[in-house]
């Protein structure tokens, strides 16, 4: 099951050789504007990323050899394609460049909670959690900024999770600034389809000319209105709704209770509520055909302390 061949250990297992129950939180794109397109075809975005206290959970155990091994199945994702494994191979190469020799191998167990192709950033969050955990366990010594830069080629959302706080993002999502968004509860509907990101960005009818907003516009709106309602939109939503009817149906249903939006390139749909009781009331009414859940906004990544002070979480 290893991602690459085994070999003799070059470094002993450290006394501190495991990190269990490491959260990989979901993200929402509170709004997502497409402001242009780069020469290489990638789209320029403006978005606010918000983490939720709901997500996958990962466990890491250092091995006596050098192998990077995923010990659990992720349906449809072979081990060598898994963003977690690919991220750790990058980190290991950087470790070898800095320290000489390879770090100990690692067994990785992933409890997959988040739907794939859901716009919740599950694969990206898993990869970010793995990078933060192994930077610590391997004593690789990368700074937060270095880890963010290392991760970007694997996916535009990964640097945000390592940044670890609510962020206003530009570029392809890599130019990040911390921003305040008031705490609230979200109801999230999973329409039961996986939306391929590339298909949405390729669509002819995608609008790519949003007028840029300023971070101050978002902050002022959140302060004066106390929430997102009335600010921005998701420019990918119309295309995803046209191509995937369940997305349109979920937006229409949830829209009866507030301003319902799609996150990322879909398929999941969310609506903000100021209290848990309001979110619970909506959840009781969700038709059985959809999976639905509530989550609270997270101000900081749960591994923030590991990144800042190198304290273990267990
Ligand atoms: C849309 C967002 C919003 O947070 O999230 P998700 O819906 O995936 O969670 C991200 O920008 C997703 O970025 P990333 O994770 O790098 O996208 P990928 O799935 O690798 O991109 C698949 C394809 O979509 C197109 N693509 C992607 C991002 C972008 N800014 N412009 C693009 O044109 C490219 O053709 C790319 O090859
Ligand atoms: N550990 C992982 N978990 C989920 N998806 C992964 C993982 N590694 C690679 N992928 C790939 O990334 C794609 C996007 O998954 P994900 O990040 O969960 O959704 P989204 O980009 O819509 O938020 C999946 O369809 C899958 O092929």
TrEMBL record:
Molecular-function annotations in GO: 4-(cytidine 5'-diphospho)-2-C-methyl-D-erythritol kinase activity; ATP binding
Active site feature: 27, 157
Pathway: Isoprenoid biosynthesis; isopentenyl diphosphate biosynthesis via DXP pathway; isopentenyl diphosphate from 1-deoxy-D-xylulose 5-phosphate: step 3/6
Keywords: ATP-binding, Isoprene biosynthesis, Kinase, Nucleotide-binding, Transferase
Domain of life according to the entry: Bacteria
SUPFAM superfamilies linked: GHMP Kinase, C-terminal domain (SSF55060), Ribosomal protein S5 domain 2-like (SSF54211)
Reaction equation(s) it catalyzes: 4-CDP-2-C-methyl-D-erythritol + ATP = 4-CDP-2-C-methyl-D-erythritol 2-phosphate + ADP + H(+)
Protein name: 4-diphosphocytidyl-2-C-methyl-D-erythritol kinase
Origin species: Massilia glaciei
């Amino acid at each position: 099951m290893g991602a690459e061949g085994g070999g003799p250990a070059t470094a002993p297992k450290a006394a501190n050789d495991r990190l269990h129950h490491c959260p990989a939180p979901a993200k929402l794109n509170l709004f997502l504007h497409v402001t242009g397109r780069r020469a290489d075809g990638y789209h320029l975005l403006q978005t606010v990323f918000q983490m939720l206290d709901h997500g996958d959970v990962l466990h890491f155990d250092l091995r006596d050899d050098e192998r990077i091994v995923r010990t659990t199945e992720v349906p449809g994702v072979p081990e060598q394609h898994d963003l977690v494994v690919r991220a750790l191979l990058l980190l290991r190469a950087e470790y070898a460049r800095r320290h000489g020799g390879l770090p100990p191998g690692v067994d990785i167990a992933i409890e997959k909670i988040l739907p794939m192709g859901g716009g919740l950033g599950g694969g990206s969050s898993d990869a970010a959690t793995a990078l933060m955990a192994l930077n610590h366990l391997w004593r690789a010594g990368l700074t937060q900024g270095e880890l963010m830069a290392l991760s970007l080629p694997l996916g535009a959302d990964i640097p945000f999770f390592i940044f670890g706080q609510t962020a206003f993002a530009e570029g392809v999502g890599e130019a990040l600034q911390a921003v305040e968004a008031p705490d609230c509860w979200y109801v999230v509907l999973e329409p039961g389809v996986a939306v391929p990101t590339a298909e949405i960005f390729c669509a002819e009818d995608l609008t790519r000319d949003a007028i840029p907003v300023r971070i101050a516009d978002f902050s002022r709106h959140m302060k004066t209105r106390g929430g997102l309602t009335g600010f921005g939109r998701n420019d990918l939503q119309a295309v995803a709704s046209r191509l995937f009817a369940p997305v349109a149906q979920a937006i229409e249903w949830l829209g009866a209770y507030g301003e319902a939006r799609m996150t990322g390139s879909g398929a999941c749909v969310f609506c903000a509520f100021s209290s848990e009781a309001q979110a619970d009331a909506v959840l009781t009414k969700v038709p059985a055909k959809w999976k639905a859940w509530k989550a609270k906004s997270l101000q900081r990544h749960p591994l923030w302390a590991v990144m800042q002070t190198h304290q273990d979480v267990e």
